[in-house]
Design brief:
single chain, alpha/beta, Arc Repressor Mutant, subunit A, D-Maltodextrin-Binding Protein, domain 2, 3 domains, seven-stranded mixed sheet, two-stranded antiparallel sheet, 13 helices, about 20% strand, elongated
Length: about 300
Amino acid sequence: MLDRQQLETFAAVLECHNFRKAASILHISPGAVSQRVKSLENAIGATLLLREPAIIPTQAGEAILRYIMAVRLLEEEAFQVIKPGRFPPVNIAVAVNADSLATWFEPVSWQLAAQHIGLEIIADDQDHTVTALVRGDVKGCISTQREPRTGFEADYAGGMRYRCVATPEFVATHLPKGMTLPTVLDAPAILFDRKDAIHDKFLSTFFEVDVGRYRKHYFPSPVALLNAILNGLGYGLVPEMQIESLLESGALVDLTPGHSLLLELYWHHWESEPEPLAKITAMVMAHARRTLVQEIPTSGEST
């Protein structure tokens, strides 16, 4: 039987990413924190933490962290059954890319928040959200990674189609001959942030060559990015579901008709999910299958 005090101390260290902060929260000395973690490692017979250059769990530590979280969730669920409303709701964090949050995931977040939980949504690039899941910061995440890490599952949620767009005025000034490599190198592109790899992926598939340095502006918000394009500051890739009416009205022009980028998204979650995590997975997947493209393109990410 694992010692609950040692387990909670181990979890506190990972949640705080710092032994001293964990000690402050637990109202014990840093030495006592270290001793509890060491005792837990001795009891399990494995190293649970890597302390340098940053505090992160080992593979064994990841398994123990999921165990602690599952115990907490089951305990809180039992309390709610015994005395509904007498205990605070369970806190659950999920990681989602900004474009999903601004489009198809937003209604899901409303459904989740309506449950008896405290919901935290962490926005990050879709190529990096799995790190937060493995680290224990979140209980589920939207990611572009197909393969799950050990102890997790990855369900195909669907594809988000991106269109390369600009205003008619921008096209007339910067791309009068269309999307040619020389003009693209000089025309300003609008990207989300430095982690954003979507634009590079699109250009490499469209031109069938890796495009080098080109002019770019960063607007780290789906709304700000779209507004920058609408104000003629550049061209960029925007989720199709976000701009359908703008394309129909002519406010935006599709620069590459017949060539879009389909970003495959996966919902990563624990292999064995206690309630309410299993319920969250079911809600996310049900909505994703109604709103996202379900066919995986055979030729890769672009169509």
